[in-house]
Automatic annotation (TrEMBL):
L-citrulline binds at residues 89, 125, 129, 177, 186, 262, 274. This is Argininosuccinate synthase. It is an enzyme of class 6 (ligase). It is found in: Cytoplasm. It catalyses: L-citrulline + L-aspartate + ATP = 2-(N(omega)-L-arginino)succinate + AMP + diphosphate + H(+). GO terms for molecular function: argininosuccinate synthase activity; ATP binding. ATP binds at residues 10-18, 38, 119. Keywords: Amino-acid biosynthesis, Arginine biosynthesis, ATP-binding, Cytoplasm, Ligase, Nucleotide-binding. L-aspartate binds at residues 121, 125-126. InterPro entries: Arginosuc_syn_C, Arginosuc_syn_N, Arginosuc_synth, Arginosuc_synth_CS, Arginosuc_synth_type_1_subfam, AS_cat/multimer_dom_body, Rossmann-like_a/b/a_fold. The keyword Cytoplasm applies. GO terms for biological process: argininosuccinate metabolic process; L-arginine biosynthetic process; urea cycle. It comes from Parathermosynechococcus lividus PCC 6715.
Amino acid sequence: MGRAKKVVLAYSGGVDTSVCIPYLKEEWGVQEVITLAADLGQGDELEPIRQKALDSGASESLVVDAKAAFIRDYAFPAIQANALYENRYPLSTALARPLIAKLLVDAAAEYGADAVAHGCTGKGNDQVRFDVAIAALNPNLKVLAPAREWGMSREETIAYGERFGIPAPVKKSSPYSIDRNLLGRSIEAGPLEDPWNEPLEEIYLMTRAVEDTPNSPEYVEIGFEQGIPVSLDGQRLEPVELVSQLNERVGRHGVGRIDMIENRLVGIKSREIYEAPALLVLIDAHRDLESLTLTADVTQYKRGVEDTYSRLVYNGLWYSPLKAALDAFIAQTQARVSGTVRVKLFKGTAKVVGRRSSVSLYAPDLATYGAEDQFDHKAAEGFIYVWGLPTRVWAEKLRQG
């Protein structure tokens, strides 16, 4: 089709992205395909993936370790925003997309490519996230999506790849579609497409079944500085290590599973299973610390901002004017969100059981019902009179008819 001469392709090593390489060259006249695999903590062996891209016809195969940037620049801001799409999904997969888009755009600039490409289909959210993020970062860069246009079944895709020396999967492929990174796993398709079917235990990897969890509770103390997680049990940790350790500790107690019917941006309802142990606990702990350190009006107003923020990220608008404006608001609120939250992990639950902060707004001498009580009870009568005055006037007028 002659759409581009040099293309940077987001590459995972799977069937679709591997077939994209010869397809772009043979069907669309692309002269050179450079692949980019982002290491976001998905646990894959990246050297075989790098080599597979070269074997599939890529002129260069890039592997970028982006784990630190992923946690620092994408996950931690989302934790500050208590970001939960539809009040449940912590955006563990969605948060990776703007970062991958940025890596593609940066590579295209470095290698002089006139287009970038991805292997997304036409039904999912990721195509929107990639296309819109890339357009925001470089509106002059072409975005190619072969899998959205080639119209091949999976069997036909495998056969097409075999024509160009790409081996078929050696084992029967799983019925599930799975995406993984350091923040969690998303599992869909196969038996899960019937929302009545209970997920089989075999789909989980990061979290134990409740019956296999320890019989004694475990406590973890999470330290925050200006809304950013910085320590576990008093030990300061780098972002990647903190999330990795917390994933293991939380998952061991069966915490972090989500089973939900999700409203995709393209208008389809989808049954999704997520595992996000550390991320869910960090958001819960962070929100609790905010209740201790933010004023009531800021806390309550921020809830609406969080909902908007979550929808923006889910819908692929990480790089957008409204998101940037919300970032500024959230950053302002986090200046005093520092302290420690104590979480009890036990049999599939994570409960906040303690919190403390040097900038806490909690005043024991006002809250207590003991002898130390400093609250002026006499002031309450006048306050109630003024507060209830509009209701009293309304009631009187109503009685008068």
